[in-house]
């Protein structure tokens, strides 16, 4: 495990703030997990009262992660994954999906939440042939992430960069685009970019998000699908492009597939 500042256990536990809701913990709550606190459940319930679709969105985003990683590890043949904004371990985490297809896959997780750090051990259950590692770092500092990740990933070979539900936490749009560009520039040709974010396409979601941001939690900016599309500039989008996540290559068994306000896509670096 590669750390920015601390190790899991008591030290990390000391940094856990249970007075304001946290993105990773609320997301865990909406996905049906147990790793959350009262403050997260209260904020999560308030959000859901205003925007009842949020829990459906959280679960749809996990199903999308499973389908995209399956594609990238399977058909696209990628063996290295850099998953920034990992979240709390839940079902079918990136390494489990990727290593089911390719046991030799190498996965580096990155998050800046102390509770995610504390639970990181659960993410480090690699196959013997592969690798999983965890970096305690902030997406605002992509160079630090790239440097630490290069201890486990070979950046002369294709890597799948995953930014799943995290870019909304970078409040300034130009900064978010610059961070994405820095990360994408470090990848060799044949690499993949896998992403989703919640969008500003529903009024109740916008209202619920405002209430959440007012709790003192790290805010999350809802952007338009057009703004999200700029994160893919210069890359080759694979079919069906940037769409509402449930519409991204649904499994035949997924029918009926309904649109939600979380959009993403998969793109290849030429
Ligand atoms: C909405 S959750 C998504 C979790 C997971 N990627 C998924 O799709 O289920 C966003 C995650 O990004 C992390 N995060 C937010 N801001 C971050 C930052 N500046 N640097 C690193 N991680 C961050 C949060 O701690 C949280 O785990």
UniProtKB/TrEMBL annotation:
This is SAM-dependent methyltransferase. SUPFAM superfamilies: S-adenosyl-L-methionine-dependent methyltransferases. InterPro entries: SAM-dependent_MTases_sf (IPR029063), SAM_dep_MeTrfase_SAV2177_type (IPR006764). GO terms for biological process: methylation. The keyword DNA damage does not apply. It comes from Streptomyces cuspidosporus. It comes from the Bacteria. The lineage of its organism: Bacteria, Bacillati, Actinomycetota, Actinomycetes, Kitasatosporales. Keywords: Methyltransferase, Transferase. GO terms for molecular function: methyltransferase activity. The keyword DNA repair does not apply. Pfam families: Methyltransf_19.
């Amino acid at each position: 495990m590669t750390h920015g500042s601390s190790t899991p256990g008591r030290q990390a536990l000391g940094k856990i703030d249970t007075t304001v809701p946290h993105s990773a913990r609320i997301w865990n709550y909406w996905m049906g997990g147990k790793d959350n606190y009262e403050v997260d459940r209260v904020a999560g319930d308030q959000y859901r009262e205003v925007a009842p679709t949020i829990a459906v969105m959280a679960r749809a985003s996990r199903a999308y992660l499973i389908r995209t990683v399956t594609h990238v590890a399977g058909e696209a043949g990628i063996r290295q994954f850099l998953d920034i904004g990992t979240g709390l371990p839940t079902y079918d985490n990136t390494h489990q999906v990727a290593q089911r297809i390719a046991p030799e896959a190498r996965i580096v997780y990155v998050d800046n939440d102390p509770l995610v750090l504390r639970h990181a051990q659960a993410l480090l259950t690699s196959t013997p042939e592969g690798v999983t590692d965890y970096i305690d770092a902030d997406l605002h500092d992509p160079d630090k992430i790239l440097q630490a990740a290069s201890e486990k990933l070979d950046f002369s070979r294709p890597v799948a960069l995953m930014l799943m539900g995290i870019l909304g936490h970078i409040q300034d749009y130009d900064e978010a685009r610059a961070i994405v560009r820095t990360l994408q520039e470090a990848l060799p040709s044949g690499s993949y970019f896998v992403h989703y974010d919640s969008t500003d396409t529903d009024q109740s979601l916008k209202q619920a998000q405002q209430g959440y941001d007012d709790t003192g939690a790290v805010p999350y900016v809802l952007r338009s699908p057009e703004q999200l599309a700029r994160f893919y500039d210069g890359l080759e989008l694979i079919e069906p492009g940037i769409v509402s996540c449930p519409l991204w290559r649904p499994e035949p068994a997924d029918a009926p597939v309904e649109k939600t306000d979380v959009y993403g896509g998969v793109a290849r670096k030429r």
